[in-house]
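R.M. (postdoc): so does anyone remember the format we settled on? I'll just put the C-alpha cells first.
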C-alpha cells in the first residue's frame, strides 16, 4: 500500500483526473509509513530535504514550523494538473525542562538525552501539516511521557544497540525503548511520530477526506 511517488497523467481520462485524490506522505520516517500501512491507508511516498534550522521558539511552534516547511517543499515538487494531491508531513521533537531533544548527533548526545530523561517526565511534540495546494492546515499534538529510572549500564547498552540514533529524544517507544516508559498521558501514536487521531480530524474537517472510509475501502479490495 506504499509506493514511491510516480505519476503518469497519460493513463488517466480527464474525468478520472478530476475525481482522484492521492495522499502523499512527505516523510522518510519508517515509523510514520508503518502507521499508515497499519491503518490500511494507501499513499505515495515523497521524501525531500529541507533546512531544519529554526530560531529559538516553543517546541510546539518548532514542530509546526518544520512540518509546514516540509509540506511546502513536497508540494512544490508535484506536477500541476487536475488530479488532487493532498500532502501530509510531520516533525517530532522531545522537550525536557525547556530543552528540545531532536535526533541525537552522536553517541555522547544520545547518552546525554537518556540520562536527562531518566526518572523524569518529558513531552513529545509532533507538528503535522496537510496541504492540497489551495490551503494548508498546520497543528501540533503533545503527549506527556513518564520514564523510570535508568542505570548507566542500561543507557550505554541501549545506545550501543544503535536504536536511539534516528529517533527524537534518543528512544523509540514502539521498540526496545518501551522498556523505559512507565506510562504516557496522551496519544501513543504521537510519540511514535504521527498523531493519527488529529490527522483524521484535519483531513475530514478541512479537506473532506474520511480516513475511516478509505481504510475500509482499501481493506475490502485487498
Amino acid at each position: 500500500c506504499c509506493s514511491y511517488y510516480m505519476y503518469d497523467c497519460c493513463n488517466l481520462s480527464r474525468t478520472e483526473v478530476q475525481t482522484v485524490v492521492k495522499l502523499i506522505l512527505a516523510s522518510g520516517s519508517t515509523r510514520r509509513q508503518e502507521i499508515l500501512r497499519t491503518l490500511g491507508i494507501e499513499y505515495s511516498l515523497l521524501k525531500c530535504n529541507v533546512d531544519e534550522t529554526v530560531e529559538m521558539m516553543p517546541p510546539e511552534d518548532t514542530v509546526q514550523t518544520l512540518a509546514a516547511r516540509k509540506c511546502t517543499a513536497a508540494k512544490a515538487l508535484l506536477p500541476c494538473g487536475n488530479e488532487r494531491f493532498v500532502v501530509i508531513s510531520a516533525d517530532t521533537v522531545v522537550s525536557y525542562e525547556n530543552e528540545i531533544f531532536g535526533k541525537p548527533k552522536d553517541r555522547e548526545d544520545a547518552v546525554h538525552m537518556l540520562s536527562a530523561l531518566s526518572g523524569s517526565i518529558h513531552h513529545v511534540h509532533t507538528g503535522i501539516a496537510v496541504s492540497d495546494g489551495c490551503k494548508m492546515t498546520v497543528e501540533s499534538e503533545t503527549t506527556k511521557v513518564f520514564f523510570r529510572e535508568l542505570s548507566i549500564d542500561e543507557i550505554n547498552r541501549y545506545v550501543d544497540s544503535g536504536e536511539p540514533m534516528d529517533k527524537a529524544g534518543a528512544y523509540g517507544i514502539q521498540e526496545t525503548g518501551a522498556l523505559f516508559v512507565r506510562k504516557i498521558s496522551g496519544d501513543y501514536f504521537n510519540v511514535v511520530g504521527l498523531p493519527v487521531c488529529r490527522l483524521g480530524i484535519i483531513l475530514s474537517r478541512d479537506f473532506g477526506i474520511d480516513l475511516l472510509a478509505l481504510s475500509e475501502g482499501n481493506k475490502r479490495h485487498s
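R.M.: ...and that's the designed sequence above, right after the C-alpha cells. Also worth knowing: The first helix runs from residue 14 to 19. Helices lie at 14-19, 30-39, 59-77, 107-117, 152-160, 188-192, 196-207, 211-221.
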